[in-house]
Specification:
The complex is a heterodimer of chains A (about 500) and B (about 160).
Chain A lengths: L1 H23 L4 H4 L22 E4 L41 H29 L6 E14 L11 E16 L2 E9 L20 E4 L5 E4 L3 E13 L2 E9 L5 H4 L12 H4 L6 E13 L2 E10 L16 E12 L2 E17 L2 E4 L5 E4 L2 E18 L2 E14 L21 E12 L6 E11 L8 E14 L2 E11 L13 E11 L1
Antiparallel strand pairs in A: 2-3, 2-21, 3-4, 4-7, 5-6, 7-8, 8-9, 9-10, 10-11, 11-12, 12-15, 13-14, 15-16, 16-17, 17-18, 18-19, 19-20, 20-21
Chain B lengths: L5 H14 L15 E6 L6 E2 L1 H8 L13 E4 L5 H11 L3 H13 L7 E4 L1 H10 L3 E6 L7 E6 L14
Parallel strand pairs in B: 2-6, 3-4, 3-5
Antiparallel strand pairs in B: 1-5, 1-6
The chains are: A mainly beta (about 500), B alpha/beta (about 160).
Amino acid sequence: MTMRSRPSRRSARLRTCAFIALACGLPLEALAQPAPEPTDPAALPPEAPSATPPAAEEDPDPGIPVLPPSLVPESEMPPPAASPPAPAATATPPATDASAEASATDAEAAASAEALATAMAAEQAAAVAGEEPKLSIYGFADFTYRQPLSDFEFAQEYETFAVGNLNVYFGADLGDQWRSLVEVRFLYLPHGSVPTLTPDGPRTDTHVPDYNDLNRPLRWGGVEIERAWIERTFHPMLTVRAGQWLTPYGIWNVDHGSPVIIGVARPYIIGESLFPERQTGLELYGSAYFGPTELGYHLTLSNGRGPIDAYQDLDHNKAIGGRLYLKNDSNLGTITFGVSGYRGKFTDRTNEYVIGADGQFESRDPVILQFDELSLAADFKLEKAGFLFQAEGIVQDTAYDDRVRPADPGFTPGPPGWTPDNRRYGVYGLTGYRTPFFGLMPFFGGEYYYIGKHSFLPDSAAVWGGLNARPTPRVVLKAQITHSWFPIPAPGLTSPDGYNALDLQVAWSF
Amino acid sequence: MLRRRPFLVCFAGALLALAAPPSKTVRADSTKVHLAVVVAKDSPITDLSLATLKRLYLGEHVNAPGGKRLIPLNHAALSQDRVGFDRAVLGMSAEAVARYWIDRKIRGQSGPPKAVQPTDMLQRVVSHLEGSISYVRRDEVRPELKIVRIDGRAPGDPNYAVQY
């Protein structure tokens, strides 16, 4: 009797609620389940099964804690509790109740698990079958305040705020070990830029009337394709990547994003592109393990460097490159040592339309600039607990084709003539220690860059140091003081005190 | 004097025991949670090295003996066993693991293993999903799963690595 009367009272309440819900325009599904009672997590046994429905998800972005995300805002997520491990004896025992209710629950759970496993397995199959793959959209950005601390001829003297990088990634697993990644950077440029060789020239102005806003001026910016590739993994020792990719050399160029790199500014040898920052072509990579040591490689074949290398090679000479590295994981920490190389030919051409000797119309594309380049690099990285040391050294040779050797614009000492072949090289070293306090990392580094003996200012150097803090894994705060100078100054051209600046940056991933 | 004050002997002995360098042999400690690395019963995997397990859970491509790629499945971030596993196998705190995956994705590398919860569901998925592997407390291992030895040791053995 009691058993019957309860459902009927519940049904009556549900009907009443449904009526109210309809009157209020609420979805009826809202009534299907009673609201969960708030649970005191402390009252739960250490590993009590969660009431959360079964779920398989790519770790919430790594970033962070999933536990019921709806209950705990990410920004307020406490650090992981160092709760004492529960003795094995107190762990929840597996269900052994053979009651009908338990059996039904067990069967349901088994069915859910099977469905979930099937879905996970089918995720790839679905992609192969042409259905929509799961697209992962994420990115990073940074905002910097720069305060010059001294006058310097080649730098802005005004303190300024700037949004530097706003990069968005589109990644997808395409099934059957195929993967794709596209990264674009949104820019304010070209607005306001001044051509490098004519610094007194007019600024680029991108103002246009915005038809959507009574033709008021709108200032548009550009998009830079940072990388766009597809890859297929055949074996841990062989993945083939095609498209545009970051050149796999050293450490910094691969770290790439401002939340990952420790300091604010790239070292000269990275920023001056002694290796091409990115290339378009094919890349093969893989690695093998010998005990705790990983031996890995990258081989590249690309258009090389050129004025339009992202989509057009202007010679038949493909650039080749590679990287070989050893990574050892031991009590000393994780030690990585690598060497990289790049060999390519830069070619620029122009178009001419002429009438040939036979009176036929001809199109020609004579070379207007061509040089060979060879870049070699070595890198070393040591990580142990929070300690980090990394260093890279790069040397680059350029040798011009005499037939198209460019005129010296007058930046070198001596009389005007032809641009000479050149060798540039440099090193940098960086060390820091990530403490457990707010992820605070004091860091210090130094660098030297030899520009070439024919340069007015043949070399430059800098030391920098500061703090890098990660209050959450996704947010990085940086404060850096930089002192740079020309070891061989040009009297009257450079300040003997060099250049000092303070940079404050917040970088974040999203 | 010693006879008169036996507690002094005990106290000194305790001090000596505390001051002595820890023995290299780690005995199976019943107060520690041993996590069993598990695969489906019909999986060809019986033994893994700790280094391979670490690589697997750091996003590296690891193949099973048959050549099929292993699919690591994880517990939810910040769950007790996940934090313990990350410390024991990866040698990283929860924050360090989170930083690791964020940095890795910004470098353009693959993302973290999928997390399945609750634990019971995780085990059931491992039993159904070919090539999958996970970990669970040793006394909670379901019958349809097989425990994988790590560096030749099973949970409960002395020097078993996956414990916290």
